[in-house]
Amino acid sequence: MKILITGATGFVGKQLVKSLSDHQLVILTRNINNSKNILGSHHQYWQTLADKSDLNDIDAVINLAGEPIVNKRWSNKQKKLICDSRWDITTVLTQLIRKSTTPPHTFISASAVGYYGRQGDTPVDETSGFHAEFSHDICQEWENLALQAQSQQTRVCITRIGIVLGKNGGALAKMLPPFKLGLGGPIGNGEQGMSWIHIDDLIKLFSYLLNNSNSQGIYNATAPQPVSNAVFAKALGSALSRPAKITTPPLALRLAMGEMSELLTTGQFVLPKRALAAGFAFQYTDINSALQQVVNSAN
According to DSSP H, which parts of the chain are helical? Predict the structure, then answer.
Protein backbone atom coordinates (compact mmCIF):
# COMPACT_ATOMS: atom_id res chain seq x y z
CA MET A 1 0.00 0.00 0.00
CA LYS A 2 1.26 3.50 -0.83
CA ILE A 3 0.55 5.75 2.17
CA LEU A 4 1.03 9.51 2.44
CA ILE A 5 1.80 10.62 6.01
CA THR A 6 1.91 14.14 7.41
CA GLY A 7 3.37 14.94 10.82
CA ALA A 8 5.66 11.93 10.50
CA THR A 9 8.52 13.32 12.60
CA GLY A 10 6.34 13.96 15.64
CA PHE A 11 6.11 11.72 18.69
CA VAL A 12 3.27 9.61 17.28
CA GLY A 13 4.37 9.93 13.66
CA LYS A 14 7.78 8.36 14.25
CA GLN A 15 6.19 5.28 15.81
CA LEU A 16 3.60 5.09 13.04
CA VAL A 17 6.25 5.19 10.31
CA LYS A 18 8.16 2.39 12.04
CA SER A 19 5.00 0.25 12.27
CA LEU A 20 4.14 0.74 8.59
CA SER A 21 7.63 -0.05 7.26
CA ASP A 22 6.28 -2.89 5.12
CA HIS A 23 4.35 -0.37 3.04
CA GLN A 24 5.54 2.24 0.56
CA LEU A 25 5.53 5.46 2.54
CA VAL A 26 5.45 9.02 1.23
CA ILE A 27 6.44 11.53 3.90
CA LEU A 28 5.32 15.15 3.60
CA THR A 29 7.87 17.35 5.38
CA ARG A 30 9.27 20.87 5.19
CA ASN A 31 12.79 19.64 5.95
CA ILE A 32 13.61 16.54 3.92
CA ASN A 33 17.18 16.10 5.16
CA ASN A 34 16.15 16.31 8.80
CA SER A 35 13.29 13.88 8.22
CA LYS A 36 15.60 11.43 6.46
CA ASN A 37 17.91 11.53 9.47
CA ILE A 38 14.99 10.77 11.78
CA LEU A 39 12.99 8.32 9.69
CA GLY A 40 15.47 6.87 7.20
CA SER A 41 16.35 7.65 3.60
CA HIS A 42 14.47 4.70 2.09
CA HIS A 43 11.09 6.47 2.12
CA GLN A 44 9.79 8.82 -0.55
CA TYR A 45 9.72 12.46 0.57
CA TRP A 46 7.60 15.39 -0.60
CA GLN A 47 8.39 18.93 0.53
CA THR A 48 5.10 20.45 -0.58
CA LEU A 49 1.68 19.63 -1.98
CA ALA A 50 1.59 22.84 -4.02
CA ASP A 51 2.87 21.04 -7.12
CA LYS A 52 0.30 18.22 -6.85
CA SER A 53 -2.92 18.27 -8.84
CA ASP A 54 -4.31 15.05 -7.35
CA LEU A 55 -3.50 12.03 -5.20
CA ASN A 56 -4.31 9.38 -7.80
CA ASP A 57 -1.24 7.26 -7.00
CA ILE A 58 -1.82 7.29 -3.22
CA ASP A 59 -3.79 4.46 -1.57
CA ALA A 60 -4.25 6.03 1.86
CA VAL A 61 -3.51 9.25 3.74
CA ILE A 62 -2.77 9.59 7.46
CA ASN A 63 -2.81 13.21 8.59
CA LEU A 64 -1.07 13.97 11.90
CA ALA A 65 0.33 17.42 11.18
CA GLY A 66 -0.12 20.23 13.67
CA GLU A 67 1.76 22.66 15.92
CA PRO A 68 1.96 21.18 19.46
CA ILE A 69 -0.91 22.65 21.44
CA VAL A 70 1.08 23.05 24.65
CA ASN A 71 4.32 24.25 23.08
CA LYS A 72 3.96 27.95 23.93
CA ARG A 73 1.65 30.29 25.83
CA TRP A 74 -1.59 30.93 23.93
CA SER A 75 -1.12 34.41 22.51
CA ASN A 76 -3.41 35.34 19.63
CA LYS A 77 -0.49 34.67 17.29
CA GLN A 78 0.10 31.20 18.80
CA LYS A 79 -3.59 30.34 18.64
CA LYS A 80 -3.61 31.21 14.96
CA LEU A 81 -0.52 29.05 14.38
CA ILE A 82 -2.13 26.11 16.23
CA CYS A 83 -5.24 26.38 14.06
CA ASP A 84 -3.60 27.13 10.72
CA SER A 85 -1.06 24.29 11.08
CA ARG A 86 -3.99 21.86 11.28
CA TRP A 87 -6.62 23.45 9.11
CA ASP A 88 -4.47 24.47 6.12
CA ILE A 89 -2.89 21.07 5.45
CA THR A 90 -6.22 19.29 5.99
CA THR A 91 -7.91 21.64 3.53
CA VAL A 92 -5.29 20.94 0.86
CA LEU A 93 -5.43 17.16 1.40
CA THR A 94 -9.22 17.17 1.11
CA GLN A 95 -9.09 19.26 -2.05
CA LEU A 96 -6.55 16.91 -3.66
CA ILE A 97 -8.57 13.85 -2.71
CA ARG A 98 -11.71 15.38 -4.22
CA LYS A 99 -9.83 16.27 -7.42
CA SER A 100 -8.55 12.70 -7.85
CA THR A 101 -10.19 10.33 -10.31
CA THR A 102 -8.82 7.35 -8.37
CA PRO A 103 -8.54 8.89 -4.90
CA PRO A 104 -7.07 7.27 -1.79
CA HIS A 105 -9.49 4.70 -0.41
CA THR A 106 -8.82 5.84 3.18
CA PHE A 107 -8.19 9.20 4.82
CA ILE A 108 -7.37 9.00 8.54
CA SER A 109 -7.12 12.44 10.12
CA ALA A 110 -6.15 13.21 13.69
CA SER A 111 -8.22 15.22 16.12
CA ALA A 112 -8.20 15.33 19.92
CA VAL A 113 -10.41 14.76 22.94
CA GLY A 114 -10.23 18.54 23.33
CA TYR A 115 -13.19 18.44 20.94
CA TYR A 116 -15.44 17.79 23.94
CA GLY A 117 -14.07 20.66 26.03
CA ARG A 118 -14.46 20.48 29.80
CA GLN A 119 -17.04 17.87 30.77
CA GLY A 120 -16.89 17.49 34.55
CA ASP A 121 -17.22 13.92 35.78
CA THR A 122 -19.80 12.77 33.21
CA PRO A 123 -18.31 10.15 30.82
CA VAL A 124 -18.53 11.06 27.14
CA ASP A 125 -18.41 9.03 23.93
CA GLU A 126 -18.53 9.83 20.21
CA THR A 127 -22.22 10.79 20.40
CA SER A 128 -21.79 13.29 23.24
CA GLY A 129 -22.04 17.05 22.99
CA PHE A 130 -19.30 19.57 23.67
CA HIS A 131 -18.41 22.58 25.78
CA ALA A 132 -17.56 25.50 23.51
CA GLU A 133 -14.00 26.72 24.11
CA PHE A 134 -10.75 27.06 22.16
CA SER A 135 -9.81 23.35 22.24
CA HIS A 136 -13.23 22.48 20.79
CA ASP A 137 -13.03 25.16 18.11
CA ILE A 138 -9.67 23.81 16.89
CA CYS A 139 -10.95 20.26 16.62
CA GLN A 140 -14.38 21.00 15.19
CA GLU A 141 -13.02 22.81 12.14
CA TRP A 142 -10.16 20.30 11.79
CA GLU A 143 -12.66 17.44 11.66
CA ASN A 144 -15.12 19.21 9.37
CA LEU A 145 -12.39 19.91 6.82
CA ALA A 146 -11.33 16.25 6.79
CA LEU A 147 -14.89 14.90 6.58
CA GLN A 148 -15.41 16.84 3.36
CA ALA A 149 -13.15 14.26 1.66
CA GLN A 150 -15.73 11.52 2.31
CA SER A 151 -17.17 9.92 -0.83
CA GLN A 152 -18.13 6.54 -2.23
CA GLN A 153 -14.47 6.08 -3.15
CA THR A 154 -12.88 7.47 0.03
CA ARG A 155 -13.78 6.72 3.63
CA VAL A 156 -12.73 9.18 6.31
CA CYS A 157 -11.82 8.18 9.86
CA ILE A 158 -11.31 10.83 12.54
CA THR A 159 -9.31 9.86 15.64
CA ARG A 160 -9.96 11.99 18.72
CA ILE A 161 -6.71 11.27 20.52
CA GLY A 162 -6.25 11.45 24.28
CA ILE A 163 -3.02 11.83 26.28
CA VAL A 164 -0.53 9.53 24.54
CA LEU A 165 1.72 7.58 26.91
CA GLY A 166 5.07 6.43 25.56
CA LYS A 167 8.77 6.83 26.13
CA ASN A 168 10.91 9.69 24.84
CA GLY A 169 8.15 12.16 24.09
CA GLY A 170 4.56 13.18 24.43
CA ALA A 171 2.93 14.39 27.64
CA LEU A 172 5.08 12.18 29.86
CA ALA A 173 8.28 13.91 28.73
CA LYS A 174 7.07 17.04 30.55
CA MET A 175 5.65 15.17 33.56
CA LEU A 176 8.55 12.86 34.36
CA PRO A 177 11.22 15.33 35.61
CA PRO A 178 9.27 16.64 38.65
CA PHE A 179 7.81 13.21 39.42
CA LYS A 180 11.28 11.63 39.34
CA LEU A 181 12.35 14.17 41.94
CA GLY A 182 9.39 13.33 44.15
CA LEU A 183 7.82 16.70 43.39
CA GLY A 184 4.84 15.42 41.42
CA GLY A 185 1.21 15.21 42.45
CA PRO A 186 -2.33 16.17 41.51
CA ILE A 187 -3.37 19.49 39.99
CA GLY A 188 -5.90 21.28 42.15
CA ASN A 189 -8.41 18.82 43.63
CA GLY A 190 -7.33 16.19 41.09
CA GLU A 191 -10.91 15.37 40.11
CA GLN A 192 -10.57 16.43 36.45
CA GLY A 193 -10.63 13.61 33.91
CA MET A 194 -7.55 12.39 32.05
CA SER A 195 -8.31 10.32 28.98
CA TRP A 196 -5.16 8.48 28.00
CA ILE A 197 -3.93 5.86 25.52
CA HIS A 198 -0.70 3.87 25.35
CA ILE A 199 1.26 4.64 22.20
CA ASP A 200 1.24 0.96 21.19
CA ASP A 201 -2.56 0.90 21.25
CA LEU A 202 -2.80 4.15 19.30
CA ILE A 203 -0.54 2.80 16.56
CA LYS A 204 -2.54 -0.44 16.45
CA LEU A 205 -5.77 1.56 16.18
CA PHE A 206 -4.41 3.47 13.19
CA SER A 207 -3.53 0.15 11.56
CA TYR A 208 -6.97 -1.27 12.40
CA LEU A 209 -8.76 1.69 10.81
CA LEU A 210 -6.43 1.57 7.81
CA ASN A 211 -7.16 -2.08 7.11
CA ASN A 212 -10.81 -2.34 8.12
CA SER A 213 -12.82 -1.16 5.12
CA ASN A 214 -15.99 -0.86 7.21
CA SER A 215 -14.51 1.78 9.49
CA GLN A 216 -15.45 5.41 8.96
CA GLY A 217 -16.46 8.43 11.00
CA ILE A 218 -15.41 9.47 14.50
CA TYR A 219 -13.37 7.25 16.84
CA ASN A 220 -12.19 8.16 20.33
CA ALA A 221 -8.55 7.08 20.52
CA THR A 222 -8.51 6.60 24.29
CA ALA A 223 -8.18 3.63 26.63
CA PRO A 224 -11.47 2.20 27.97
CA GLN A 225 -10.69 3.29 31.55
CA PRO A 226 -10.06 7.05 31.80
CA VAL A 227 -8.93 8.20 35.23
CA SER A 228 -8.93 11.34 37.36
CA ASN A 229 -5.84 13.48 37.55
CA ALA A 230 -5.31 12.35 41.16
CA VAL A 231 -5.40 8.67 40.18
CA PHE A 232 -3.03 9.36 37.28
CA ALA A 233 -0.56 11.17 39.54
CA LYS A 234 -0.63 8.35 42.08
CA ALA A 235 -0.05 5.75 39.34
CA LEU A 236 2.88 7.69 37.88
CA GLY A 237 4.44 8.11 41.30
CA SER A 238 4.03 4.41 41.95
CA ALA A 239 5.61 3.47 38.60
CA LEU A 240 8.62 5.63 39.52
CA SER A 241 8.67 4.51 43.18
CA ARG A 242 8.31 8.14 44.22
CA PRO A 243 5.77 10.01 46.35
CA ALA A 244 3.21 12.01 44.37
CA LYS A 245 1.50 14.18 46.95
CA ILE A 246 2.59 17.73 46.14
CA THR A 247 -0.47 19.58 44.86
CA THR A 248 -0.08 22.21 42.14
CA PRO A 249 -2.50 25.12 42.72
CA PRO A 250 -4.55 25.99 39.61
CA LEU A 251 -3.83 29.69 40.18
CA ALA A 252 -0.08 29.06 39.90
CA LEU A 253 -0.62 27.28 36.57
CA ARG A 254 -2.85 30.09 35.38
CA LEU A 255 -0.17 32.66 36.15
CA ALA A 256 2.51 30.57 34.45
CA MET A 257 0.58 29.33 31.43
CA GLY A 258 -2.40 31.61 30.96
CA GLU A 259 -5.49 30.19 29.25
CA MET A 260 -3.56 27.07 28.22
CA SER A 261 -3.56 25.96 31.89
CA GLU A 262 -7.24 25.03 31.50
CA LEU A 263 -6.11 21.93 29.59
CA LEU A 264 -4.63 20.73 32.88
CA THR A 265 -7.17 22.05 35.38
CA THR A 266 -10.25 20.82 33.48
CA GLY A 267 -10.77 17.62 31.53
CA GLN A 268 -13.06 14.84 30.42
CA PHE A 269 -13.60 11.12 30.89
CA VAL A 270 -13.70 9.89 27.28
CA LEU A 271 -14.80 6.36 26.34
CA PRO A 272 -13.77 4.63 23.06
CA LYS A 273 -17.28 3.32 22.40
CA ARG A 274 -16.99 2.94 18.64
CA ALA A 275 -13.57 1.28 18.64
CA LEU A 276 -14.78 -1.29 21.17
CA ALA A 277 -18.00 -1.86 19.22
CA ALA A 278 -15.94 -2.48 16.07
CA GLY A 279 -14.01 -5.21 17.88
CA PHE A 280 -10.75 -3.36 18.51
CA ALA A 281 -8.89 -4.89 21.47
CA PHE A 282 -6.81 -2.58 23.66
CA GLN A 283 -3.64 -4.06 25.11
CA TYR A 284 -3.39 -1.47 27.87
CA THR A 285 -6.61 -0.75 29.75
CA ASP A 286 -5.21 -0.09 33.24
CA ILE A 287 -3.29 3.11 33.95
CA ASN A 288 -0.94 1.41 36.43
CA SER A 289 0.25 -1.27 34.00
CA ALA A 290 0.48 1.24 31.14
CA LEU A 291 2.68 3.66 33.08
CA GLN A 292 4.76 0.84 34.53
CA GLN A 293 5.50 -0.42 31.01
CA VAL A 294 6.48 3.04 29.76
CA VAL A 295 8.71 3.79 32.74
CA ASN A 296 10.42 0.38 32.56
CA SER A 297 10.99 0.68 28.78
CA ALA A 298 12.54 4.13 29.20
CA ASN A 299 15.14 2.88 31.70
Answer: 11-19, 32-39, 76-99, 134-147, 170-180, 199-211, 229-239, 250-257, 262-265, 273-277, 287-298
